[in-house]
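All the exercises in this workshop are built on plain-text protein records. A record pairs a protein's sequence with a compact description of its fold. Read left to right, the backbone structure tokens trace the chain's path through space. Once this layout is familiar, the rest of the handout is easier to follow. Here is such a record, shown just as it appears in the course material:
>
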Amino acid sequence: MEGLVIKDSTKLKEIDPLTPSKAAFYSAILPGLGQAYNKRYWKIPIVYGAIGTSMYFYLDNNKKYHSYRDAYKRRLAGFSGDEYDYLDDSRLVQAQRFYQRNRDLSLLVTLGFYILNIVDANVDAHLIQFNVNDKLSVAPDIYQNDFTARPNLGLTLNFKF
């Protein structure tokens, strides 16, 4: 007959201090890979949606910027009969600046989402290592004041040994 195996419940899980840097590195190599490494698969579509949408606006604004710029250059060269005949030269320059500004902002937003992806993977890997169980809890509490009988709002910190 086998003996009874007792599991040590006080032993903590081993913490790998390199996990956050691995997650950040993976997200830097391929956006969303750090989220997969952290097993937060639901975040991957959000990462690709944010980066993909901002890249779409970057490419669209870049295409329109080059279209207006090429039309303006053709006018300066003496050609006419392009798709922007209804605009004068100052409006073509104004449209170029508008789409150039939007293109540059779209690039900054894309880079921001890329960096946010890396930071999210790093922070999420850090938070995985925190001990979160029922022995330690913080909860809001509403209690009645003994003197005035008015409800008071408080914060309760519980630590069970």
Observations:
- The CA atoms of residues 133 and 159 lie 10 Å apart.
- The longest helix spans residues 89-128.
- The chain has a mean pLDDT of 88.
- The chain has four helices and two strands.
